Amino acid sequence: MRYTCDKYYICDNGVAIPQLCPDGTVFHFPIQNCILINGADCGGRPLLQESIKKNQCLKKTGLFPHEDPTQCNKYYQCLDGRQTLITCPEMLLFDRSRGVCDYADLADTSSCILEPSPVVCPSRDEESFSSSLDITKRLLPHPSDCRRFFFCETMIPRPLICEEHLAFDLETLSCIDKSQVQRWSRVQQKQHQMSPSILKVLKNCNDCIRKP
């Protein structure tokens, strides 16, 4: 169909027989079959069949965001109107456009409310986000967790985590054994200016062992 993305024709002996994809899928020309609408390119065919919403399934089949906008890492997998709640792997969020889990700086999170990040990436007004940007300004340590750190590819920090028993080392900008970590936080250089309560938090961060 010229303007309908989920309809197509089967030609039999010169006779065009109209067909309709299952609700939530669209006809994909390259493979001559119906696929999930997430990530599909309908081009100039914006129309879709009318759907009947059931539970959290906006269509009978497909991948749909959680109804709670703060649950950015959860989504529903719907098959013939039956829904299954799925949680993305740690640190990934649901991208509603592509129907996949991805990092916050790569995912379409327009329908959810992101938790504030504990770090701020360099401003585009201050630094050029080119491939030559100093890597020390792209990699930022988590302020209170030795294993976690952030990568700034855009203005949205991408959360990353070292494997168990490893910690992020700010000197080498890599994950190394906790016992070998020289400095996991930039604030360590100013420990003598901090209050005892702050120092206690730093010294007990994941029981990291840091050299003086």
UniProtKB/TrEMBL annotation:
Organism superkingdom: Eukaryota
Record GO cellular component, one term: extracellular region
Coiled-coil ranges from the UniProt annotation: none
Gene Ontology molecular functions: chitin binding
Annotated Pfam families: CBM_14
Domain spans labelled Chitin-binding type-2: 1-44, 54-114, 118-175
Classification via InterPro entries: Chitin-bd_dom, Chitin-bd_dom_sf, Chitin_bind-dev_reg
PANTHER family per the UniProt record, alphabetical: CHITIN BINDING PERITROPHIN-A, LD20793P
SMART domains xref list: ChtBD2
PROSITE patterns per UniProt: CHIT_BIND_II
Name the record gives this protein: Chitin-binding type-2 domain-containing protein
Keywords of the record: Chitin-binding, Disulfide bond, Glycoprotein, Repeat, Signal
